[in-house]
Amino acid sequence: MASGVSPEEIVLSEGEVLALARAFLMAHGLGEAQADAMARTLCAAQRDGCTSHGLQRLPGTLDTLAHPAFNRHADPRPEAVTPAVIRVDADYGFSILAAERGLPLLIDSARTLGVALLAVNNGFHSTALWPVVEEIATHGLAALSMNPTHDWVAPAGGTRGALGTNPIAFAWPRPGRPPYVFDFATSAGARAEIAQRRQRGETLPPGWGLDAQGRPSTDPAAVLAGSMLPFGGHKGSALATMVELLAGPFIGDRTSRQSAAFDGGVKAAPCHGELIVAFNPAILAAATGDSEAAAEDLFARITAQGARLPGDRRYAARAAARRTGIRVPKALYERIRSLTPPQT
Ligand code: NDP
User: Fold this and answer.
1) Residue 113's CB: how many other CB atoms inside 10 A?
2) Residue 218 in contact with residue 208, Cβ under 8 Å?
3) Residue ranges around ligand 1 (CB below 6 Å)
4) Active site positions, annotated
5) pLDDT per residue as tens digits for the range 228-266
6) Where does residue 8 rank: exposed (0-12), middle (13-18), buried (19+ CB within 10 A)?
7) What is the pTM assigned to this prediction?
8) Cα gap 260→241, rounded to integer Å
9) CATH for the 1-65+311-344 domain, from 3.30.200.20, 3.40.50.2300, 1.10.1530.10, 3.60.10.10
């Protein structure tokens, strides 16, 4: 039994978590390929201690499945638009399957051309971004990923939502070690985190949001009804705008405002595009020296000061889960089981 497991938790193996998520999704009519892709991503987040994007997302997928446009049997096929530009239409299923299917072409193209991009269109998106960039980096490539959400976030200096929570994830490959990976929303807090704090009866740090009248608020319920704020003032606001442009108009998909309009009050996961770019660090470095050593030196200078690298907490949680199992709140486990109709 894992140490520190509370009486409110149970411990499952990776296989059991996968089976739990897969059974739930398939019992609600999701095609096998989509159910597998979603189950893998939610399981990875639960395993790595990213619980806001783990199994607690599962009950909420029912709202997404209820969207009139949602396609339970989407079968996304990647196409090369140019040698460096790959597009995959998620066909109104979950984005993650489309992204996964586009990766082999993206990786091959980036290896040969030095840089390539994958545009995922028309996908319902509710998962963390790091699993995809981490996967790309295990192939020796750097990777960047971003997407809009709904226009919940007011621009710095504004009073109402105009931008999405617009996450950005980045990964850099490391020899003999897991990649350097960061992944966060450009809002001061992720919406799921604000919802979790509301559930726990906690207040928000100042600067996370505004109430419906555009006044600063630390009440999660007021901020969820009003608007969130970007991190870092005008800097986060500009980064969120960049995400909106590159993962919206650039790839011919919805902005966060259009995504919210498309939802039509169903409260499904936002349906929009995602931009994934892969870079081959070996192409230019071959002419200029050893970039691998320079990158490792940079990481060592960060950690030598006692600072940690993003991703390291996650890798430690993963190692612990592989030793002792994945912790799942009992109440969540029971809820998922009770929402899983027996298959005939
Ligand atoms: P956080 O503010 O919690 O930041 C998480 C990132 O910062 C991780 O890479 C984490 O690494 C790293 N980190 C945290 N603390 C430190 C530290 N002290 N030193 C160094 N690195 C640190 O993230 P958010 O709450 O903004 O986002 C959480 C998740 O929500 C993301 O995975 C994101 O993809 C997801 N999200 C998804 C959306 C979607 O559209 N699907 C929308 C918005 C968010 P580590 O993991 O190792 O702790």
Assistant:
1) 14
2) yes
3) 50, 53, 125-130, 147, 149, 165, 167, 169, 182-185, 190, 193, 308, 310-314
4) 52-53, 193
5) 999 999 999 999 999 999 999 999 999 999 999 999 999
6) exposed
7) 0.96
8) 16
9) 1.10.1530.10
